[in-house]
Design goal:
single chain; about 400 residues; mainly alpha
């Protein structure tokens, strides 16, 4: 029995954390909003852990590119559920119109502002490396990220998210998936619960992973609407900004498991793979997630229509795009060093701590992006060419070669 607990203990603990929120969904009486938000948020976080473990365990049956895309998709599934819920509620209740993009912009900025620097910090602390290098195939992701970012500025300027925007962003996501490398990748770096799942016999593993993913997805879908309502109600109860509460608390619950996973990758000498996973998540959120919002909103309204953006949402989208532009441009040399990681962390933390400074921070992002463009101006053409190559480029990136020479 002890051996079974040692082997499956994390799964049982995760299930115990998810149970209160799942049970509360069927409770005959409503809980106070703060307690309900915590319970439902715990369910989302626990389900996200299960999804991350399952995606890691499944990677040995897939190519490296497809495995990273799968990890990115399941990691952002909680964001899809919560954002989709807010888009649906906005179609039924105008009071929710301010929230669909709140969760999306918060999740995107957390990924880059804390996630990317976290990988660099772990690699530096554990291995003494000053930068994290990527392979040449990642230029395809950077190219898609740049294209989606450029398009986001047009959405922010128009202050609406239309079905045409959805088609464009879905097209970019399809292009991203189509250009994924198909060659087999490096051996799995899965550890802990993910490794124990991966070590099971192939047939049993596949059935078990399918069951875990289905259960986790069902739990997220079960609590996403009450979680969204509880967050908004908690903001009203405490007199704090509902927008900022939705923008940060929901993404923190869903992004935490992914941060744990990539930290483990980075700790075990897989910093490049950890950063690749976060880039994949960013691309998925910035294309597929955003494209679904006007579709869900239209279905809720009962006819095809644009999702209007408030002035606050438009400013937040502009800030998110500015951060994304700077982040993508500094990756054109296929490396993220300590200096750029520190800049990402400081700017994100400042705008989080002092919301009144978000307009100056947006301007700083654009200024740094301009400097990065000058520094890596040849990389834009390389990224565009890499996107249309029929086969992934092989070999280490130039940044990796520079690291070895040092």
């Amino acid at each position: 029995m002890r051996a079974g607990w040692n082997r499956n203990g994390p799964l049982w603990i995760t299930a115990a954390c998810a149970a209160p929120g799942a049970l509360l969904r069927f409770a005959p009486h409503a809980w106070p909003a703060p307690g309900a938000a915590l319970a439902f948020g715990a369910t989302v976080a626990a389900a996200a852990f299960v999804l991350a473990w399952a995606a890691e365990a499944a990677e040995q049956d897939l190519s490296r590119g497809v495995a990273l895309a799968l990890l990115a998709l399941v990691a952002v599934l909680p964001e899809f559920a919560v954002d989709g819920t807010f888009a649906w509620l906005a179609g039924r209740h105008p009071g929710y119109l301010a929230f669909p993009l709140a969760n999306m912009t918060g999740a995107n900025r957390i990924l880059i502002g804390w996630g990317w620097p976290l990988v660099v910090a772990v690699v530096w602390k554990r291995h003494g490396a000053r930068r994290v290098s990527l392979d040449r195939a990642q230029l395809k992701k950077v190219a898609v990220l740049l294209a989606a970012t450029a398009f986001s500025f047009w959405i922010a300027a128009r202050r609406s998210l239309t079905l045409f925007d959805a088609i464009v962003l879905l097209g970019l996501f399809a292009l991203y998936v189509w250009r994924l490398p198909t060659a087999a990748g490096a051996p799995s770096h899965a550890v802990g619960m993910a490794r124990r799942l991966a070590e099971r016999p192939r047939r049993r593993r596949r059935w078990l992973l399918a069951a875990l993913v289905s259960a986790a997805a069902a739990a997220i879908l079960l609590v996403s609407e009450p979680f969204a309502r509880a967050l908004v109600a908690a903001g009203s109860l405490f007199g704090v900004s509902q927008f900022y509460l939705v923008q940060w608390l929901a993404p923190l619950a869903s992004e935490l498991p992914e941060f744990v996973v990539v930290s483990i990758f980075a700790w075990h000498a897989a910093g490049g793979r950890a950063l690749e996973a976060l880039i994949s998540s960013k691309v998925s959120q910035w294309t597929l997630l955003v494209s679904l919002l006007p579709v869900i909103y239209s279905l809720s309204r009962g006819h095809w229509t644009a999702l209007p953006l408030t002035q606050l949402e438009s400013r937040e989208l502009l800030l998110t795009g500015a951060q994304s532009l700077f982040a993508a441009l500094i990756l054109l040399d296929l490396a993220l060093d300590r200096r750029d990681a520190a800049a990402l962390w400081v700017l994100f933390t400042v705008q989080l701590a002092v919301p009144e400074w978000r307009l100056p921070v947006t301007a700083i992002y654009f200024a740094l992006a301009a400097l990065a463009l000058v520094r890596h101006r040849r990389g834009v053409a390389r990224a565009a060419r890499a996107l249309w190559r029929s086969e992934p480029a092989a070999g280490p990136p130039p940044a990796a070669a520079r690291d070895r020479r040092r």
